[in-house]
Specification:
The chain has 175 residues and is of the alpha+beta class. It folds into 2 domains: 128 residues, Alpha-Beta Plaits, CATH 3.30.70.1730; 41 residues. It has 7 helices and 5 strands, in the order αβαβαβαββααα. The chain has a 5-stranded antiparallel sheet. Helix 1 crosses helix 3. The radius of gyration is 27 Å and the shape is elongated.
Protein backbone atom coordinates (compact mmCIF):
# COMPACT_ATOMS: atom_id res chain seq x y z
CA UNK A 1 0.00 0.00 0.00
CA UNK A 2 1.62 3.26 -1.10
CA UNK A 3 1.33 6.61 0.70
CA UNK A 4 -1.53 7.85 -1.50
CA UNK A 5 -3.57 4.69 -0.89
CA UNK A 6 -2.94 4.97 2.86
CA UNK A 7 -4.09 8.60 2.87
CA UNK A 8 -7.22 7.62 0.93
CA UNK A 9 -7.94 4.82 3.42
CA UNK A 10 -7.48 7.24 6.34
CA UNK A 11 -9.87 9.73 4.72
CA UNK A 12 -12.47 7.00 4.10
CA UNK A 13 -12.24 5.72 7.68
CA UNK A 14 -12.39 9.26 9.04
CA UNK A 15 -15.56 9.95 7.05
CA UNK A 16 -17.13 6.70 8.29
CA UNK A 17 -16.29 7.60 11.90
CA UNK A 18 -17.91 11.03 11.47
CA UNK A 19 -21.04 9.55 9.84
CA UNK A 20 -21.63 6.82 12.44
CA UNK A 21 -22.46 7.50 16.08
CA UNK A 22 -21.94 3.82 16.94
CA UNK A 23 -19.08 1.49 16.13
CA UNK A 24 -17.54 -1.60 17.67
CA UNK A 25 -13.93 -2.75 17.47
CA UNK A 26 -13.62 -6.54 17.48
CA UNK A 27 -11.08 -9.29 17.04
CA UNK A 28 -12.36 -11.87 14.58
CA UNK A 29 -8.98 -13.39 13.77
CA UNK A 30 -8.79 -17.14 13.85
CA UNK A 31 -12.29 -17.70 12.51
CA UNK A 32 -12.42 -20.10 9.60
CA UNK A 33 -13.32 -18.71 6.18
CA UNK A 34 -16.74 -20.35 6.46
CA UNK A 35 -17.45 -18.78 9.86
CA UNK A 36 -16.09 -15.40 8.77
CA UNK A 37 -18.35 -15.43 5.72
CA UNK A 38 -21.31 -16.43 7.88
CA UNK A 39 -20.57 -13.56 10.31
CA UNK A 40 -20.25 -11.09 7.41
CA UNK A 41 -23.57 -12.32 6.00
CA UNK A 42 -25.24 -11.83 9.40
CA UNK A 43 -23.78 -8.32 9.57
CA UNK A 44 -25.17 -7.56 6.12
CA UNK A 45 -28.61 -8.91 7.10
CA UNK A 46 -28.66 -6.68 10.22
CA UNK A 47 -27.49 -3.59 8.27
CA UNK A 48 -24.11 -3.58 10.01
CA UNK A 49 -21.08 -2.59 7.96
CA UNK A 50 -17.99 -4.67 8.77
CA UNK A 51 -14.49 -3.64 7.73
CA UNK A 52 -11.17 -5.24 8.59
CA UNK A 53 -8.77 -2.36 9.19
CA UNK A 54 -5.12 -1.72 9.92
CA UNK A 55 -4.73 -0.38 13.43
CA UNK A 56 -2.33 2.41 12.44
CA UNK A 57 -4.66 3.69 9.72
CA UNK A 58 -7.67 3.58 12.06
CA UNK A 59 -5.69 5.39 14.75
CA UNK A 60 -4.76 8.17 12.31
CA UNK A 61 -8.37 8.39 11.10
CA UNK A 62 -9.54 8.76 14.71
CA UNK A 63 -7.07 11.58 15.24
CA UNK A 64 -8.48 13.44 12.21
CA UNK A 65 -11.98 13.62 13.72
CA UNK A 66 -13.17 16.01 16.41
CA UNK A 67 -14.50 13.23 18.68
CA UNK A 68 -12.49 11.96 21.64
CA UNK A 69 -11.43 8.44 20.71
CA UNK A 70 -8.36 8.54 22.99
CA UNK A 71 -9.44 5.61 25.25
CA UNK A 72 -9.92 3.39 22.18
CA UNK A 73 -6.30 3.70 21.03
CA UNK A 74 -5.11 1.18 23.63
CA UNK A 75 -7.43 -1.48 22.17
CA UNK A 76 -5.90 -1.18 18.69
CA UNK A 77 -3.67 -4.24 18.95
CA UNK A 78 -3.78 -7.39 16.89
CA UNK A 79 -6.32 -7.94 14.14
CA UNK A 80 -9.17 -5.43 14.19
CA UNK A 81 -12.55 -5.48 12.51
CA UNK A 82 -14.77 -2.44 12.88
CA UNK A 83 -18.56 -2.77 12.89
CA UNK A 84 -20.62 0.32 12.00
CA UNK A 85 -24.33 0.41 12.79
CA UNK A 86 -27.14 2.94 12.98
CA UNK A 87 -28.65 0.98 15.90
CA UNK A 88 -26.52 1.14 19.05
CA UNK A 89 -27.12 -2.39 20.35
CA UNK A 90 -27.31 -4.30 17.04
CA UNK A 91 -23.61 -5.30 16.82
CA UNK A 92 -23.57 -6.40 20.48
CA UNK A 93 -26.64 -8.59 19.98
CA UNK A 94 -25.13 -10.02 16.80
CA UNK A 95 -21.81 -10.88 18.48
CA UNK A 96 -23.63 -12.38 21.45
CA UNK A 97 -25.86 -14.55 19.25
CA UNK A 98 -22.95 -15.63 17.05
CA UNK A 99 -20.93 -16.70 20.09
CA UNK A 100 -23.91 -18.67 21.48
CA UNK A 101 -23.49 -20.99 18.49
CA UNK A 102 -20.18 -22.17 19.97
CA UNK A 103 -17.88 -19.64 18.30
CA UNK A 104 -15.07 -18.25 20.43
CA UNK A 105 -14.81 -15.11 18.34
CA UNK A 106 -15.40 -12.29 17.54
CA UNK A 107 -14.26 -10.76 20.80
CA UNK A 108 -15.29 -7.22 21.64
CA UNK A 109 -12.23 -5.02 22.10
CA UNK A 110 -14.10 -1.76 22.57
CA UNK A 111 -17.14 0.18 21.43
CA UNK A 112 -18.08 3.81 20.89
CA UNK A 113 -21.81 4.36 21.38
CA UNK A 114 -23.36 7.84 21.53
CA UNK A 115 -20.13 9.45 22.77
CA UNK A 116 -19.65 6.76 25.44
CA UNK A 117 -16.68 4.39 25.39
CA UNK A 118 -16.90 0.74 26.42
CA UNK A 119 -13.66 -1.21 26.82
CA UNK A 120 -13.39 -4.99 26.97
CA UNK A 121 -15.45 -8.03 26.11
CA UNK A 122 -17.09 -7.97 29.56
CA UNK A 123 -19.09 -4.91 28.36
CA UNK A 124 -20.93 -6.95 25.71
CA UNK A 125 -23.94 -7.74 27.90
CA UNK A 126 -24.35 -4.09 28.88
CA UNK A 127 -24.13 -3.00 25.25
CA UNK A 128 -26.68 -5.62 24.16
CA UNK A 129 -29.13 -4.27 26.75
CA UNK A 130 -28.93 -0.67 25.54
CA UNK A 131 -32.29 0.35 24.17
CA UNK A 132 -32.45 1.56 20.60
CA UNK A 133 -33.98 4.89 19.67
CA UNK A 134 -37.18 3.20 18.42
CA UNK A 135 -37.49 1.14 21.62
CA UNK A 136 -37.15 4.30 23.73
CA UNK A 137 -39.74 6.16 21.65
CA UNK A 138 -42.12 3.21 22.03
CA UNK A 139 -41.70 3.23 25.82
CA UNK A 140 -42.28 7.00 26.04
CA UNK A 141 -45.43 6.74 23.91
CA UNK A 142 -46.71 3.87 26.06
CA UNK A 143 -46.09 5.93 29.21
CA UNK A 144 -47.86 8.93 27.72
CA UNK A 145 -50.84 6.85 26.59
CA UNK A 146 -51.30 5.14 29.94
CA UNK A 147 -53.00 8.06 31.81
CA UNK A 148 -55.25 8.80 28.84
CA UNK A 149 -56.29 5.14 28.64
CA UNK A 150 -57.12 5.16 32.35
CA UNK A 151 -59.35 8.23 31.96
CA UNK A 152 -61.15 6.77 28.94
CA UNK A 153 -61.55 3.43 30.71
CA UNK A 154 -63.01 5.15 33.77
CA UNK A 155 -65.43 7.14 31.67
CA UNK A 156 -66.55 4.10 29.72
CA UNK A 157 -67.06 1.97 32.81
CA UNK A 158 -69.14 4.74 34.43
CA UNK A 159 -71.42 5.37 31.44
CA UNK A 160 -73.98 2.83 32.67
CA UNK A 161 -74.16 4.56 36.03
CA UNK A 162 -74.64 7.92 34.31
CA UNK A 163 -77.37 6.48 32.08
CA UNK A 164 -79.09 4.99 35.18
CA UNK A 165 -78.79 8.29 37.01
CA UNK A 166 -80.34 10.17 34.07
CA UNK A 167 -83.29 7.71 33.99
CA UNK A 168 -83.84 8.20 37.69
CA UNK A 169 -83.83 11.97 37.26
CA UNK A 170 -86.29 11.72 34.35
CA UNK A 171 -88.63 9.54 36.41
CA UNK A 172 -88.55 12.04 39.28
CA UNK A 173 -89.40 14.90 36.90
CA UNK A 174 -92.28 12.90 35.42
CA UNK A 175 -93.76 12.31 38.87
Amino acid sequence: MNKQEKNQAIETLSALLKENAHFYLTDASGLSVEKTNKFRRLCFDKDIKMLVVKNTLLSKAMEKTSANYEPLHDTLKGATAILFSSVANAPAKLIKDFRKEGNEKPILKSAYVEESVYIGHNQLEELANIKSKNEMIGEVIALLQSPAKNVVSGLLSGKHKIAGLLKTLENKKAN
